[in-house]
Here is the input.
Amino acid sequence: MTVINAQNVNLVFQTADGPVQALKDVNLSVNKGDFVSFIGPSGCGKTTLLRSIAALEHPTSGTLTVNGMTPDEARMKRAYGYVFQAAGLYPWRTIAGNIALPLEIMGFSKPEIAERTEKVLDLVELSGFGRKFPWQLSGGMQQRASIARALAFDADILLMDEPFGALDEIVRDRLNEELLKLWARTGKTIAFVTHSIPEAVYLSTKIVVMSPRPGRITDVIDSTLPRERPLDIRDSAEFIAIAHRVREGLRAGHVDV
Here is the structure.
């Protein structure tokens, strides 16, 4: 079942220096339960495409649907949760309070808010930290809290914009492992922006390679790796071959511009 579908999507920003084409002729289908990573150089339109799926940007032409609806309709139906590059937690609210905020806005009852908050804290392995404040948690734990907030209203789709980009490699590896476990437990569809080739290959069932601006899709790679992926799978010949194809796609994107 297709949950995200883009057909001939173009997006042009009007700036003081003239029009800037951020996306050009983007065609893509994401199926239910996929883990799709978008990778490409800075300014290639990865985040713009993710933001378009979330109705935070609007294509100039073409068709983009989420669960068969326009992105604006999908947002009103709460079809997705969004995790930004920075955790974006309010420092005056506890971790539980931050997670509860969207639920409060949506009008959930206090007992249901408490139940959902406890459930997602457990999902991201932060049980017992609900009464802590963001400044009392490490960067990695704050980002897990941000993921919990996006999961709290149980949307089927999780949109993630480089959530681990600012973290050191050791923490990033651990959170990559935890994200795969969370994806396996929840069965959600995940769209994930990254600059890291190893991260894209390790996490994804499908890797979307994008060119420098104007952002075009130069390759879509269906991963042949098993869903159970220990970190040392990155040393396997199969992993290295997929990473090589991603790297070649990135190089080809630069050449073709």
